[in-house]
Structure formats: C-alpha cells, structure tokens
C-alpha cells in the first residue's frame, strides 16, 4: 500500500458473517450492542435493505446503515435514527460489503427492508 492510499477497507468473508452494531444511528431497528448476521456481497442489495458498508471518505470504518439509493457505482446510505446524521449526508457515497439478514443477539429476528 502506498502512503497516499490510506488503510484498506475491512473485508467480509464467509456465507454469513457476524457483525456487532455500535452507536445509535440505526435505532429503533438496531440498537447499540446488537449482533447481526451479514450475507457478504452487494449483488442482491436493493433500496431499503440494511447493509454493512464502508464510506469512501472513511475507508477505515465499517458501518451498518440502510441503503437508500444507488449513487453512481456506490450507494447513498442513511441511518434509521433521524437525530443522528453520521451517514451519507456527512460522508458521501459508500461501497456495500453485505446485506444484514438477521439479528441473532440479544433479540433474535429477521431484519426487514423498508421499501418506499
């Protein structure tokens, strides 16, 4: 890696990958401390899906957000908590690394997409 490239984005590997949610940006859908299962890849992502992604302006940070719309070859993401704006409004487009399919701890259940 050249010094001007910055850190490489985290990679998700496996069929289902556990990811821990931190922060309040996805409340009430997901809460700080929730553990979710992520299906790696972005081929099946549609607007309204909850995804794991990396903002291009913050390549060191893996985030859980809701996919709002395609933005060129990336995605525009938003958190479900309207009081928190640490999403594409602050950081621009993101590269999706996977789709959240379920919360497995502490309140097991499917994570549903919202279609607008």
Automatic annotation (TrEMBL):
GO process annotations (BP): proteolysis
Domain of life where this protein originates: Bacteria
Pfam families in the cross-refs: Peptidase_S24 (PF00717)
A GO cellular-component term linked to this record: membrane
Span of domain Peptidase S24/S26A/S26B/S26C: 20-100
Keyword Ribosomal protein: no
InterPro entries attached to this UniProt entry: LexA/Signal_pep-like_sf, Mito_IMP1_subunit, Peptidase_S24_S26A/B/C
Keywords, sorted A to Z: Hydrolase, Membrane, Protease
Subcellular compartments: Membrane
Transcription regulation listed as a keyword: no
GO MF entry, a single one: peptidase activity
Chief localisation class: membrane
Name of the protein this chain belongs to: Nickel-type superoxide dismutase maturation protease
Species the sequence originates in: Micromonospora mirobrigensis
Taxonomic path: Bacteria, Bacillati, Actinomycetota, Actinomycetes, Micromonosporales
């Amino acid at each position: 890696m050249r010094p001007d490239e910055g850190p490489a984005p985290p990679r998700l590997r496996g069929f289902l990958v556990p990811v821990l949610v931190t922060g309040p940006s996805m409340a009430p859908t997901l809460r700080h401390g929730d553990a979710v299962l992520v299906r790696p890849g972005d081929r099946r992502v549609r607007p309204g899906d909850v995804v794991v992604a990396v903002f291009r302006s913050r390549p060191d940070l893996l985030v859980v957000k809701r996919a709002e719309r395609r933005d060129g070859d990336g995605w525009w993401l938003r958190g479900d908590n309207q009081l928190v704006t640490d999403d594409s409004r602050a950081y621009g487009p993101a590269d999706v690394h996977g789709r959240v399919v379920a919360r497995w701890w502490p309140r097991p259940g499917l994570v549903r997409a919202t279609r607008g």
